[in-house]
Amino acid sequence: MPGTDLKITPQLSIPESELVERFVRASGAGGQNINKVSTAVELRFDIAQSPSLPEALRARLLGKRDRRLTDQGVIVIDAQRFRTQDRNRQDARERLIAFIATGLSVPKSRIATKPTRASKTRRLEGKRARGDVKRGRSGRHSWD
């Protein structure tokens, strides 16, 4: 995989030079293997400074409230699900592709609407009926 671009769509790809990978020891259970081998991958990609992303996509990605995004606009993905370094590396890249792909679709702008006259009437009728039920519970009735 080294030396190849990360392909998001046929039109959009990220050069290998923009990705920063660091291999660290994974946390959690795993016995001797986990204590000896640095299999976990920390993948960093600077969204804010990337020349390969279109401006609109960059703005949508930076606007997301994702805990993996730093204040400087760098996404940090930790992958330690698998036992081998290569598989964790592949997993981290797949997760980065998925994150960027979520920003590709432009959300539809919401058109504000007003309630119809019929829905207002139904709402008021429901309130009136509920009020009648509560009024009927008061102690004014004689049950003799």
Short overview:
The chain has helices at about 30-35, 55-65, 85-100, 115-135; strands spanning about 5, 15, 20-25, 40-45, 75-80.
Protein model, in words:
With 144 residues, this protein is α+β, with helices and mostly antiparallel strands. It has a domain of 97 residues: Double Stranded RNA Binding Domain. It is 37% helix and 16% strand. Strands 3-4-5 form a three-stranded antiparallel beta sheet, covered by helices on one side. A two-stranded antiparallel ribbon has the order 1-2. A hairpin with a 5-residue loop joins strand 1 and strand 2. It is elongated and about 85 Å long. One of its GO terms (molecular function) is peptidyl-tRNA hydrolase activity. Keywords: Hydrolase. This is Peptidyl-tRNA hydrolase ArfB. It comes from Ralstonia edaphi.
Low-confidence parts: none
Q: Number of helical segments? A: 4
Count the strands? 5
Helix % is: 25-40%
- Oligomeric category: single chain
CATH C-level class of the domain at 6-102 is: Alpha Beta
> Numbering strands along the chain, what is their spatial order in the largest sheet?
3-4-5
Output the radius of gyration: 28 Å
Helix and strand run: EEEHEHEHH
Shape: elongated
Mean pLDDT: 82
- Main beta sheet: 3 strands, antiparallel
Strand content: 15-25%
Structural class: alpha+beta
Q: Architecture of the domain at 6-102, according to CATH?
A: 2-Layer Sandwich
CATH topology name of the domain at 6-102, in short, is Double Stranded RNA Binding Domain
Distance between the termini: 89 Å
